[in-house]
Amino acid sequence: MDDQACPRCKTTKYRNPSLKMMVNVCGHTLCESCVDLLFLKGSGACPECKIPLRRTNFRVQMFEDSMVEKEVNIRKRILRDFNKREEDFSSLREYNDYLEEIETIIYNLANNIDVAETNKKIELYKKDNKEQIAKSKSKIARSEYELDEMIELEKQKEEEKRKELVKEEIEAKKRKIRDKAALIDELSFSDSNATSIIESFTSVIQKKEAKVPVKATQFSTGIKFGNQGNQSYLSVPKIEEGPLYSYTPIRQQIEGPSPPGWREIQARGYVSHVRNECDRDRAGGFKAHVACLRALQEAMAGLYHNPSQRQAEFATV
Amino acid sequence: MFPQSSQNKFWMFSDENDLTILREKTNAEFIEKHGANMTLEQKEEHFLSNTEERTLLRFYELQLRDFCRRFNPSMPRPTVATALHYFKRFYIKNSVMDYHPKEILVTCVYLACKVEEFNVSISQFVANIKGDRDKASDIILNNELLLMQHLNYNLTIHNPFRPVEGLMIDIKTRYTSLENPEKLRQHIDEFLERVFLTDSVLLYAPSQVALAATLHAASRASANLDNYVTDILFSREQLGGIIEAVRKIRSMAKCVEPPSREVIKALEKKLDKCRNQENNPDSEIYKQRMQEMLDEEDLQDNERYAKIIQDQAAYDDKILGVNKILSPIL
Lengths: 317, 330
What we know:
The complex is a heterodimer. By secondary structure, chain A is mainly alpha-helical. In chain A, 53% of the residues lie in helices and 4% in strands. Among the domains of chain A are: 136-209; 257-274 and 287-311, no CATH class. Chain A has helices spanning 32-38, 66-81, 92-110, 115-128, 130-189, 194-211, 262-267, 279-283, 288-300, 307-316; strands at 21-23, 29-31, 43-45, 52-54, 59-60. Chain A is elongated and about 95 Å long. The two termini of chain A are 77 Å apart. The longest helix of chain B is centred in the C-terminal third of the chain and has 37 residues, at 284-320. The interface between A and B is medium-sized, with 31 and 38 residues. Chain B: Belongs to the cyclin family. Cyclin C subfamily. Chain B: InterPro entries: Cyclin-like_dom (IPR013763), Cyclin-like_sf (IPR036915), Cyclin/Ssn8 (IPR043198), Cyclin_C_2 (IPR031658), Cyclin_N (IPR006671), CyclinH/Ccl1 (IPR027081). Chain B: Residues 62-149 form the Cyclin-like domain.
């Protein structure tokens, strides 16, 4: 697969592992050393299609297929100017036509079809839409700016939160020391029972701790719960909740003497008569009880079964 | 569990009489259908009677058991029991003359292997069959769906093996006066072998069969389980029914005897003549019908293909406004 080779010096990736392929606007590749050699002066002709190229336009090839590389490059350039968005059109149809047009231009340039004509078209578009292009560019910039601001805000909040946590921790430590001292004082000077004193102290501490949790107003990322309101997200649709599900155990009809239950098997020693589960069985959640219970249930189920009763049933049906 | 199972709901019959009536009906229906223009004597001469069918089936049940015993890799007992169960169920509602038992036999075993999670591939399975193996695998795979359909897709079978284990555990726990309950096992297994050749599995719950086996084994090993049954397991009012059931199962298991070879030979000869040729893979009718079905499928495929082509042409026509896309090279 590694047959990437420079068309000029024929070096391959195999022979020179640090080989870097470069590509220019025409879509033909050259290795880095050839670029250095040929474009010593800063500009020259492509050895394959003789198009004049500038050295600064060489980039490292990202895609194996240089045509893809070329197309990506063209696309980037075209989209910088053709930057209208869906909101700028009155109907979806128009927007789609616009996208179609962009694709045609890119395709033409990438495949060298009517290059001169297409370039003219682009120039014309640029001239016609100068104002709009500039506006759109600034719009994009502004939205990026907003994002930056949001990130900044978040960082600030995080910092605050961290500080608060540290403060709280110190406070808690202090309180603990205080409580301990009080307890020792009490123990050394009071006449009452030592255990009861300790108990009363622990209950007080527990009560305090139980009070601490404050209702969270932020996500763990530091964003406030209510913050989404002023953004243009769609609100999550509320699901109508029915009554809560409550579990009712399955009642099996046995038609026989009732078999012992899960507890009884253990208590009355039924389990000791089946093979004990080994570690490997237990890993899957299996216990000998299961097999034992099932065997007993099946032994009892249907013992009262009476064929002649069935006949009576059938007769009524 | 058994009381809620399809086995209890659809495949339990009230007594032997009930089964006989059903089988006679099946037999009569077949004769009615295939011998409409024969006199009564001709019919008797040509077709198998119900009792003859029963004899043949008993023979083939033994065959099935022996086939499973010889099976390589060795087959677990529940699989054999399930296969026998399927076999019995199938011939309650189908005549021996309609589907030959030797074909249904292997199909039952194959299906039972699947249901009881005894994993063998069809090639492995067919390796156990003497004779033409390709044909055998064709027969099995062709009949498998038919068998399931006639079983009404009630494939879960409750066998008495687990209940026997349960009873053993219970006896060991609650009836400690019995010494060495394990000595019963051998007799229990023997008894269960025989029970599966009778109709009692279609009449009684698996736990009842298990209890009968245990009691039978106890009497064979001269152990006394009477107190266990009367005092520990059952209350007074339930006792009558279960004693009757156990007695019946034991008496049914007693009178299992293989039919003689000569009788079977004569019956098979008769069967070869009167069997439904449409279901005989060696017959002309069967081959012809299969061929027709194949042709039909081919035809359908061709038609479908032609239609797709037409649709596409129409679509091209509509979109491009030309009748044919001309290749640029030509």
